[in-house]
Design a protein that fits this description.
The protein is of the alpha+beta class and 300 residues long. It has two domains: 158 residues, no CATH class; 131 residues, no CATH class. The chain contains seven helices and nine strands, in the order αααααααβββββββββ.
Length: 300
C-alpha cells in the first residue's frame, strides 16, 4: 500500500486535527469528502493510530512558541530516520500558532502523529503496522509517565511552598523535659488585658530557646495594639531589656503558645515581662502597660 492519500496536505492536516482535538461537523464533512477522492485511503488504520495516541487527563501549561517549533523539527527528523532511506516521509504544511498557543499537550501528540503517519506511508505490511502500534503504545506510556512525574513534582513544590504549621506545644514539652530548661509561671497584673490570664513559659538558656503558653489573655486587634515580650538580663542594663518578639492572641482561642524570639543573646534572665504596645512593637518600651510577668525564682 503506497498511502498516496497522505500527499493531500489538507487531508493530512485534518487527520492530525481529528486525532488530537476532534473535528466539528463542517471539518468532518470535508474529511469524508477528501477521503472519497483517494482509493488507497484506510480509515480503520488511521483510527487505530488515533486510539494509540489517547492522552486523556494530560493538562499542562502552554510552552513558548520557539520551543514548540524546535521540538516539531526534531519530531520530523526522528520520523525520517525511523522510516528509512528509501521511504518518503510526507512533509506537513506549516501551522499558524494562536496567541494563546496549543500547549505541550498539542505538541507531544502532534510530534507522535507526524512520526506515525510517516511510518504508515513507509510500511506496507501488517507486521510493520503492528510494530508501529507497539511503538505508539510505548510513546503513550512515556507521556503518561511524564504526566505522573510532573504531578508528583507539583505536589512536592506545593508542600514546600506551604509547609505545615510548627507544633509549638510539642516543642515546648520536649524542651521542658530536656533537663536544662526552666519552667516559670506567669503572674498577671491589673491591666485589663490580663485580669484572667495565666500560663507559663519554658526557657533553655543554653539553647537560647523558649516558648510561652497563655490562657485567658485577651485577644487583640493587631491594627490597634500588640503584645511584646521583654527579657531582663542581669548582664545588661535594666533600661534596655532584650526584645523577645511581638505576638498576637487570636479571638476564640482558650490557649495560645508563642515561641520566644530573642533579638540578642541572653546571659542570665531575671525577669520576663509582657507589655501592651502599638502595632509592630517598640524599640524601647515605656512600660506603662505591663500585662504579665514571670520570674525565674517562681519556677513550677
Amino acid at each position: 500500500m503506497s498511502a498516496r492519500f497522505l500527499h493531500d496536505e489538507r487531508l493530512s492536516d485534518l487527520l492530525v486535527q481529528r486525532a488530537i482535538e476532534g473535528l466539528g461537523p463542517e471539518a468532518s464533512s470535508e474529511l469524508a469528502e477528501r477521503a472519497r477522492q483517494h482509493q488507497d485511503y484506510d480509515d480503520d488504520a488511521i483510527d487505530r493510530i488515533a486510539a494509540a495516541l489517547s492522552m486523556s487527563g494530560l493538562e499542562l501549561e502552554p510552552m513558548p512558541v520557539q520551543v514548540r517549533d524546535r521540538l516539531e523539527e526534531r519530531a520530523e527528523s526522528w520520523c525520517r530516520a525511523q522510516a528509512g532511506q528509501q521511504a518518503r516521509v510526507v512533509a506537513f504544511p506549516e501551522r499558524q500558532h494562536s496567541a494563546e498557543g496549543r500547549g505541550l499537550r498539542w505538541l507531544a501528540a502532534a510530534s507522535v502523529v507526524l512520526g506515525a503517519l510517516g511510518w504508515y506511508q513507509a510500511f506496507d505490511n501488517g507486521a510493520q503496522r503492528d510494530q508501529l502500534a507497539t511503538e505508539l503504545d510505548g510513546a503513550r506510556q512515556i507521556l503518561v509517565d511524564t504526566r505522573d512525574s510532573l504531578t508528583s513534582q507539583q505536589a512536592l513544590v506545593a508542600s514546600l511552598s506551604n509547609p505545615p504549621a510548627p507544633d509549638f506545644g510539642q516543642r515546648m514539652s520536649v524542651l521542658a523535659g530536656g533537663g536544662h530548661a526552666r519552667v516559670i509561671a506567669w503572674t498577671h497584673t491589673e491591666d485589663p488585658t490580663a485580669l484572667e490570664a495565666g500560663g507559663e513559659l519554658v526557657w533553655d538558656n543554653d539553647k537560647q530557646e523558649g516558648y510561652m503558653r497563655f490562657s485567658g489573655l485577651a485577644a487583640n486587634n493587631p491594627d490597634e495594639l500588640q503584645y511584646q515580650l521583654w527579657i531582663f538580663d542581669e548582664t545588661r542594663d535594666d533600661r534596655h531589656p532584650v526584645d523577645g518578639g511581638v505576638f498576637d492572641v487570636p479571638a476564640g482561642q482558650g490557649e495560645v503558645i508563642v515561641p520566644i524570639r530573642a533579638r540578642l543573646p541572653v546571659g542570665k534572665p531575671v525577669l520576663f515581662a509582657i507589655t501592651v504596645e502599638r502595632p509592630g512593637g517598640v524599640v524601647v518600651s515605656s512600660r506603662e502597660r505591663i500585662a504579665l510577668v514571670a520570674k525565674p525564682n517562681q519556677e513550677i
